[in-house]
Amino acid sequence: MMARERVSTLWLILCSLSENIDALGNLSSKLVNETDYVINEFASIVGKISTSLLKGLISISRSLYVTLFVVGAVLYFTRLNRRLGRDLMLGSVSIAILMEAILPFIV
Predict the structure, then answer these.
(1) pTM of the model
(2) Cα torsion angle, 95, 100, 103, 107, sign
């Protein structure tokens, strides 16, 4: 009689442990799903921020290289300082190539 009580008690303990293990498995799968969701949302936000920063950087650089080119052209063609004018125009062309052609493909 004592052996049967011990077996039934052991059986009840094992059943409750099994239920706890199932609950723990469900909890861990929920935790993994939530962690994946948070990581995906963070990656999405970082992507949006980097895209908007790149657009802003390109917009600022456009006004910069146009201004440099105009100032360089004025200096070059009025012969006030031909060498500086040439350097400013070459610099503005290199900035334009970097910002419009190379940088968008890198990022």
Answers:
(1) 0.62
(2) positive
